[in-house]
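Backbone-to-sequence.
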């Protein structure tokens, strides 16, 4: 009987050790970039929600600490965090950090009124529309060159919000904006009755990918990146990535209700 109890206790200890091992915890740094990353948003924003769930599929828990972006980068570079998210690919960063697969694509699209579609397949097609842009923003070399080549009718606004207001008032036909940021603004800065008045053409004007990065000088750095990559692949295979985008469009992330 004593041997039987000893075996049970030993089995429990092994089980707890196994659980403790599989539920590794990583502390990551980030900054404010709603709706992709924010200390104030549910699940810390759309992008970090994907990162957390991708790691969770591999038995890894994630905690976030928020700083101004430059400080977040430097602190992680110094080894104070296990990684940082989310970042565009940059030649200088690639010298010191490993980059994960793309967590998401930041797509600049053309928003338009739902009752007045903006249809285009080539950039030349856009010359017939009045297109809104935001002062100081970059929309990629292809769009910039096409604007000059085809003589786009462009209207410049000081902020994205003003650009969307012009769109609602039909002062412009289309407004160029990041997909996620656009729906974030629509969800948070406009009354409910106006939200369904705006949609977007699925074609992409410009695109950048965002990534989880880890300093190359950290122990197991590349393995950490590979773990996230496996998690991202698992989310994609399960179809769950589409759900995150649906949450983004619906305004789900604006509530501060962290898990």
């Amino acid at each position: 009987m004593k041997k039987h109890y000893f075996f049970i206790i030993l089995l429990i200890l092994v089980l707890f050790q196994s659980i403790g091992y599989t539920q590794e915890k990583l502390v990551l740094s980030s900054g404010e970039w709603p709706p992709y990353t924010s200390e104030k948003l549910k699940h810390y924003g759309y992008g970090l929600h994907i990162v957390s769930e991708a790691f969770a599929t591999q038995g890894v828990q994630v905690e976030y600490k928020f700083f101004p972006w430059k400080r977040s980068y430097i602190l992680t570079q110094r080894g104070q965090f296990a990684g940082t998210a989310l970042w565009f690919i940059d030649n200088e960063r690639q010298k010191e950090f490993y980059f994960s697969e793309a967590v998401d694509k930041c797509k600049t699209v053309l928003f338009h009124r739902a009752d007045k579609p903006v249809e285009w397949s080539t950039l030349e097609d856009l010359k017939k529309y009045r297109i809104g842009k935001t002062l100081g923003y970059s929309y990629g070399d292809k769009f910039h060159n096409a604007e000059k080549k085809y003589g786009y009718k462009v209207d410049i606004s000081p902020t994205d919000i003003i650009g969307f207001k012009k769109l609602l008032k039909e002062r412009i036909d289309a407004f160029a904006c990041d997909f996620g940021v656009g729906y974030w603004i629509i969800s948070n800065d406009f009354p409910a009755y106006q939200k369904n008045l705006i949609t977007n053409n699925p074609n992409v004007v410009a695109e950048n990918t965002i990534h989880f990065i880890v300093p190359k000088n950290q122990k197991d750095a590349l393995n950490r990146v590979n773990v996230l990559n496996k998690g991202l692949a698992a989310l994609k295979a399960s179809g769950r990535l589409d759900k995150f985008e649906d949450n983004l469009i619906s305004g789900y992330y604006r509530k501060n209700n962290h898990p």
